[in-house]
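Give me the fold.
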Amino acid sequence: MQPQDVAPRPGPAASSSADPVVGVEQAEAALVEHYPRLVRLAYLVLPPGLGRNRRVLTAHALVQRALPRGRASTPVIPAQSTGRDGDPGYAYVRLQVVRTALEAGRPLRLGAWPKRSQLPPLLPQVWGLRLFPRSGGADELALDQRLSALSGPARAAYALLGLEKLPDGVVRKVLQAAGVDDAEAALREADGDTDRYALLDSPEFDPCSLQARPTDLMRRRQHSKAALAAAAAVVVCGALLALPGGGWGPDGAAAPSYAQNPAARAALDPGRLTRVAATAWESSARTDFSVWPARGELADDTALLRRALAVWARPGETVRVSATPGTPSGGPAGPPQLLYAGVVDNARVVILHDGLRIARYAEPKDGTQGAALDFARVDGATGAGAEAVVLGRSDGNVRYLAAPWVRKAAERDLLKPGSGAMALPLTGGVTSPLATAPQTGACTSWNVLQLTDGSGTRLLSDLGELVPAHLTAGRPGSTGEASGARALRVWSPYACSLASMRSAGVRAVNAWAYAVQPLPDASGSADWVCTRAETWRGGGTRVLAQFHTPGGVYGAVAAKAENVPSCGPRDPHVLAGVLWKSEKDSWYLLAAGSRGTSSVSATGGVTGTARGGLLAVRAEQGARAELKGTLEDGRSIGGLR
């Protein structure tokens, strides 16, 4: 595109007395004669984000609404002397099409009435069918992707240049008349790909030659049934409302707005809170929150408990509310169970349990401004999942309320498996402060809570939620506690990877050392470990395949995935690979599969096959490969990603 002199730009709505006057009949004649080209022009200018069906209908609607309401003037644009370009009626309709198509692509603004072109078209409408142009080839697809990356004015410039065959100066004036603020920038953005102008005449961009497909038939059937049911309900309700002296009120069977549901009132009554006896857990077969007694020096503070229940039912604007993923934050269905009420650091804290959730209410000791309400899902919690609840965090420390059957508590650095555990005194079930794991900066330590009860010792890690995550180790389906010496050595290089699982509603994390691989160039042996995080809600599981070389402090994440069965009890198999550089500056693709893998192969940027579950192939730096494994039972597995 060659630079041209730019004349002073008139305003978008400006017209002079010399502009030709266009009547409705002249504009209609031009519209009917050139209707397919005008619709194609509108389709090209409309944003691709509307979807092909709506773009088609909107393009037809914009062209059909392009006629003037009376006699209108159209700006004189040079170089319009022959063919349709010499027709003022066509020039007017084309300008209207470009203007409204650009308006349709602008976002709706808050506080401003939308223009008609920005709303879905009322007409034309085709019920039960979706319409879209016929698909073109690879060249048309590439051009469509190129157009989708352009702004609306740039698409208009490209269409006017390529479809209308207008010179740059004329395109600039058309864009200015259509309301484009910077027509020169639109021309620069549309510059290039002039050899693709001919593709604009292809069926890919022809909204007048269409294919038809049905809409979602199942959804239509469901909507039809729902509409019939709603119509029948309206008829019945209308008949009842018409009955003299009775019938349903505007809220149906609901009580008046000032009435209170007895269950809702009971849930807000601190006198009806469920309180379990201090020794109930000793005779119960259950090891869950339902047998926790009410503890804390404020367990009988009726005013505090009433505030906590009221905030849970209807938190005010100043209350900070948080909930783990998949946890509802509505009020309790009935009187919840009181687990704790007391002073923790500089706050009064109440811990409640309703069978599904743990709710923590906290308010400053000097008032209620700045109160907080936190929720965590704990349905099905038992054993380690019901052994500790976070009471509070301050100054980089965390305090826990331990289960009544916990005998000892200790603090352990997961990065230092041989350093031993430091005892944490328990006072009324509350631990002394424990340093939390680092949230920012270098990961030089990862402190976990070690609890001992009559059945053994468990490790729990704070992941930023009310209930800490239970750490285990071993092959899926036969995992054990992570507190043993061997399990601690397995976890040590991968402790810092727990940071990627914060605030995800994690219930438990298992680490499984599934392979040991001899390294090329006599570099020793590397460990492959798979860590899998299970959540309270079931979905959202996270799997990491990690690789640890001799002498390294931390493991490296080789692959990760979410919501996959790999490395879990349903599918205890995993395959992952990593590019590794030896001490001799040679690059290798290393891959390892879990026990039961009979062969591993790599394709793509690196090719190779090995019998068994280990593969080592020379590779180039930055190479990418696809991994495939075959299990001993003949089933194929892909590399974790």
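The radius of gyration is 35 Å.
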